[in-house]
Structures are given as structure tokens and as C-alpha cells.
Design a protein that fits this description.
Elements lengths: L8 H5 L6 E6 L7 H14 L4 E6 L6 H4 L8 H5 L5 H4 L1 E2 L5 E3 L13 H12 L7 E6 L5 H9 L2 E6 L3 H18 L3 E9 L2 H18 L3 E9 L2 H8 L4 H4 L4 H15 L11 H8 L9
Parallel strand pairs: 1-5, 1-6, 2-4, 2-5, 6-7, 7-8
Antiparallel strand pairs: 3-4
Helix pairs in contact: 2-12, 6-13, 7-13
The protein binds adenosine-5'-triphosphate and magnesium ion.
Adenosine-5'-triphosphate binds next to helix 2, strand 7 and helix 10.
Length: 289
């Protein structure tokens, strides 16, 4: 019903429901974080969600390359206050909003007070109504990786069946749980021979974390090694658009459905202040890591 002013929507416009923030991390490089981030974001958008994809890999800006986009601005200009987040966002396939990475290798820990304020303002003033924010992080365990991963509500750890991938996935969970109090992780097995192999790999990791870490693991899904996925990347397209019936496209749709089931943040404030504040306030705990 219309109110006295004749504008029922006026009351609703100011309400932003919480945004689910999912970081995609791995420890080891080259295990598929960017591939997963891009295809997950597009699968979620295809399922009706308003999605933003943040490229938080400050070393190598990948997301725009993967999708053949040519951004004019990037996050570093937002940090320095030269432009607003809205000016940096590039519209990707299926209406996914893409925030290209800041150029250079500046770490989150090195931002000065003005840049910190710029980042918080940029996210909290974002007017677009979002359902999900997917954060593609860099490899390794740098301050910036830890900050972005710690700021997310759900941490998706991508792992493939290689000793270095397994030990690095363990390392990132160890740092985040002992140092930052992050105790729940979703594991995505990638480049496997199939669902069974993926589950065995997940169990291998869960056995080690159960023994040595105080964390809860969940198998978020499995993406098999898929030639069609590789080809879609060469074509600068998502596999969901290029090869919708491929095995990897099916896996990304299942993963997106899984992500939809993960709970929303408890914060009733909504929007992205929570994310931005956690990003800046990522202080390690006193306990040794
Ligand atoms: N399931 C898969 N099947 C086939 N190829 C894959 C699969 N997942 C990833 N790849 C390939 O692996 C390579 C590395 O993937 P990607 O760039 O997404 O990894 P990354 O973890 O983001 O790397 P970096 O740590 O350098 O950012 C890419 O060439 C991609 O095509
Ligand atoms: Mg990457």
C-alpha cells in the first residue's frame, strides 16, 4: 500500500540486506582461484543473484584478463581518493560487477590513513544492492591475502591433489585459525579425476586439520580437470557460457547452489561496512602462529 506521501518504496530504498562475502584462497599459486572466482560469480549471477567480483590479487590483475575486459581505472585510484568505487566497476557477463585489482604490489598493511578511509568509504557508500561479493585473492600468505580472507564471511579454500597445494592449504587455515580466529573453512577440490577423487582429497585434508587444528571443514564441491574449462579461458569466456553442458560448468552450478545455502552474516547493518572494517582491522591475535 502507498503511504501518505504516495511513495511506498521510499522506506525500502534505504534498507540494504547483508551481503554475503566469500573469499577464494589457496596458499599455493596456480591451483585455480581466479578460474573458480570468475565461474562461481557468473554461476551465481545466472541463478539470479546480484554479484560483485573483487580482484584482490594486487600482484597480477587476472580477472579482467580472463574475461577480456579493459578497465579504465582500478582500486588503487579509489584508495588514493582519486575516484569512487562506482567509477572503477566494470560490468561483466550476466551483470556481474567487477572491481579490477589495484596495480602494483602494495599490501593492505601498507595503506596509509587516507587510503584506509578511502577503502572503508568506497565499500560502505556503494549504492548498488548486492547479494554476494566474491573476492579473488593472491597466492601466498601476505598481509593482503590474510586481510581479505579474514574479512570475508566464508572462506573457500581451493586445493588440488599435489603435496604443495595440500601443505599450503593447511598453512593458510593454520594462520587464519590460530592468528585470526577464523575456524570454519569450505574446501573446493579442483583439477581432480572426478567426484570420488575430489572427496578422497577432501578427506585427506580433513584428517590432518582434525588432528592438528581447531577448525571445522566442509567439502564445498569438486571441479574436475576439464579441457573445456581450459578452452573457455583461452576464449576469455566463462565455461558456463562457452560450454554449458561440460563437467566443470555443472560443477560450478552445483557450487553456486551450495554457496546460496551458506548463511548470511549475522550483522543486521547490512551492506559492506562489515567487510571494509574487518579489512582494515585485521590485527593478528597475540597467540603465536
Ligand atoms: N578444473 C580445471 N581444469 C582444467 N584447467 C584448470 C582447472 N582449474 C584451473 N585450470 C587451469 O589452471 C591454470 C591456473 O588457474 P588460475 O589462474 O585460476 O589459478 P590461480 O590460483 O588463480 O593462480 P594464481 O595463484 O597465479 O593467481 C589456468 O591456466 C587454468 O586454465
Ligand atoms: Mg589468480
Amino acid at each position: 500500500m502507498l503511504d501518505a506521501s504516495g511513495d511506498q518504496a521510499s522506506g525500502l530504498r534505504g534498507i540494504h540486506h547483508p551481503v554475503k562475502v566469500i573469499s577464494v584462497s589457496s596458499g599455493k599459486g596456480g591451483v585455480g582461484k581466479t578460474t573458480v572466482s570468475v565461474n562461481l560469480a557468473i554461476a551465481l549471477a545466472m541463478q539470479g543473484n546480484k554479484v560483485m567480483l573483487l580482484d584482490a590479487d594486487f600482484g597480477l590483475a587476472n580477472v579482467d584478463v580472463l574475461l577480456g575486459l579493459h578497465p579504465q581505472h582500478n582500486l588503487s585510484e579509489v584508495l588514493s581518493g582519486e575516484c569512487r568505487l562506482e567509477d572503477v566497476i566494470v560490468s561483466g557477463p550476466h551483470g556481474v560487477d567487477i572491481v579490477p585489482a589495484a596495480s602494483g604490489k602494495k599490501r593492505m598493511a601498507e595503506l596509509d590513513a587516507r587510503e584506509n578511509a578511502g577503502l572503508i568509504n568506497a565499500f560502505s557508500e556503494l549504492t548498488a544492492s548486492l547479494d554476494m561479493l566474491i573476492v579473488d585473492t593472491a597466492a601466498g600468505l601476505s598481509e593482503s591475502v590474510v586481510s581479505f580472507t579474514h574479512a570475508a564471511h566464508h572462506v573457500l579454500v581451493v586445493v588440488c591433489d599435489e603435496p604443495a597445494s595440500i601443505t599450503d592449504a593447511y598453512a593458510i587455515m593454520k594462520v587464519l585459525s590460530r592468528g585470526y580466529g577464523v575456524t570454519a573453512f569450505k574446501v573446493l577440490t579442483n583439477m581432480t579425476r572426478g567426484a570420488e577423487h575430489g572427496y578422497q582429497l577432501y578427506e585427506k585434508i580433513a584428517r590432518v586439520t582434525d588432528r592438528f587444528l581447531d577448525v571445522t571443514l566442509e567439502h564445498a564441491g569438486n571441479v574436475p580437470q576439464d579441457e573445456y574449462l581450459r578452452r573457455s579461458i583461452q576464449q576469455q569466456s566463462s565455461v558456463l557460457d562457452a560450454y554449458p553442458s561440460s563437467r566443470s560448468a555443472q560443477s560450478f552450478r552445483a557450487l553456486a547452489q551450495q554457496c546460496e545455502r551458506w548463511p548470511l552474516p549475522a550483522s543486521s547493518r547490512g551492506h559492506l561496512e562489515f567487510f571494509a572494517e574487518r579489512l582494515i582491522g585485521a590485527e593478528p591475535r597475540a597467540a603465536a602462529v
